[in-house]
């Protein structure tokens, strides 16, 4: 990834899915979100006097619900929780925003998708990282307005194209570190990939003095290089359930089959039966071989072992997803 060739991850979009194929992983993620993030937080500050603690709490709740200058924090933390719960790590990035009325800066937060965050590869958990980089995609016109057209032109990427529209973006990597040796904490903006030089004027001292992010780590499994979420634990069981669901639909498409021997029925009665005017027909007497004029071939039957296995998978999925029916 250090050579700048890591891929662009497309947005996750809703696509037409196979009818009857369940999406239990997605449902369990929604269930987890509604269970863990439904309530408004009640922060406490025991290290300061009660009056100051109450002021800090009210300030936090205002920011949590959002105001005219910044998005609500609750939406940002919800998305970070979904990333951490499902993929293993969720990130919230801090940045400085200037209030147009007062001119003062204040700290704001934004969600950093897990697939667009790179951190110190020598550390298993982000909490121990010495550096972090946030990958962002700017519209071409916005990037040119900030950094200049000549500087941005070599890094323009065509992300999407149709017969009447083209979307061009610029991949910018916001890099922060804690300093190495006697070096000071540093921040810069790198175009394209980590192997490129920072954009002119962006290499400067880290204004935060730390890595400006908060994170949620689901589980650091023994021997794994990176934290793991609930989705990898559920994938094998989900695929097994989907396989049985396909078998169910295959069986349902093969119902019992009726074979009618027309030469053994009264023609006029059979025509009325086909038109739906009567519900029964008369035969022409017993056939020499003794068989009925109408024979029913049985359809495919569902094996009891398959139904039992489906129940086992249901219980296994509940255990994997930490949810119950």
If you had to describe this structure to a student in words, what would you say it looks like?
By secondary structure, the protein is an alpha+beta fold. Helices cover 33% and strands 21% of the residues. Strands 3, 4, 5, 6, 7 and 8 form a 6-stranded antiparallel β-sheet that branches. Strands 2-1-9 form a 3-stranded antiparallel β-sheet. A hairpin with a 6-residue loop joins strand 1 (89-98) and strand 2. The mean pLDDT is 83.
Shape call: elongated
Strand content: 15-25%
Largest sheet: 6 strands, antiparallel
Number of helices: 8
Helix content: 25-40%
- End-to-end distance: 42 Å
Query: Which class best fits the helix and strand makeup?
Result: alpha+beta
- Would you report the number of β strands? 11
Alpha-carbon Rg, integer: 31 Å
Any chance you could write out the topology, listing elements then pairs?
Elements: H1 24-36, H2 50-65, H3 73-87, E1 89-98, E2 105-112, E3 117-119, E4 131-139, H4 140-147, H5 149-152, E5 156-161, E6 166-177, E7 186-191, E8 204-205, E9 213-217, H6 230-252, E10 257-260, H7 267-275, E11 294-297, H8 304-321
Antiparallel strand pairs: 1-2, 1-9, 3-4, 4-6, 5-6, 6-7, 7-8, 10-11
Helix pairs in contact: 1-3, 6-8
């Amino acid at each position: 990834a250090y050579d700048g060739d890591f891929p662009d991850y497309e947005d996750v979009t809703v696509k037409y899915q196979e009818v009857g194929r369940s999406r239990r992983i997605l449902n369990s993620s929604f269930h987890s979100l509604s269970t863990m993030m439904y309530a408004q937080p009640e922060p406490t500050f025991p290290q300061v006097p009660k009056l100051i603690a109450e002021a800090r709490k009210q300030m936090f709740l205002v920011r949590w619900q959002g105001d005219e200058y910044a998005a609500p924090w609750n939406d940002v933390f919800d998305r970070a929780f979904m990333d951490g719960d499902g993929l293993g790590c969720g990130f919230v990035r801090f940045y400085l925003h200037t209030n147009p009325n007062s001119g003062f800066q204040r700290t704001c937060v934004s969600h950093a998708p897990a697939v667009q965050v790179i951190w110190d590869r020598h550390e298993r958990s982000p909490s121990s990282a010495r550096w972090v980089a946030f990958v962002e995609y700017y519209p071409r016109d916005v990037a040119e307005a900030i950094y200049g057209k000549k500087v941005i032109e070599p890094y323009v990427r065509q992300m999407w194209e149709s017969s009447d529209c083209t979307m061009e973006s610029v991949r910018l990597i916001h890099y922060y570190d804690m300093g190495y040796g006697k070096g000071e904490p540093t921040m810069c903006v790198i175009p394209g990939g980590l192997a490129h030089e920072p954009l002119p004027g962006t290499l400067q001292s880290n204004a935060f003095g730390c890595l400006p992010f908060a994170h949620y780590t689901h589980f650091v499994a023994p021997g794994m290089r990176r934290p793991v979420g609930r989705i990898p634990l559920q994938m094998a069981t989900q695929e097994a359930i989907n396989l049985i669901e396909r078998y169910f639909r295959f069986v349902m498409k093969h119902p019992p089959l009726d074979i009618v021997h027309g030469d053994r029925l009264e023609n006029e009665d059979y025509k009325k039966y086909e038109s739906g005017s009567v519900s029964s027909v008369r035969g022409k007497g017993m056939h020499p071989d003794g068989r009925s004029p109408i024979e029913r071939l049985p359809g495919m039957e569902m094996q009891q072992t398959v139904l039992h296995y489906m129940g086992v998978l249901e219980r296994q999925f509940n255990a994997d997803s930490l949810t119950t029916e």
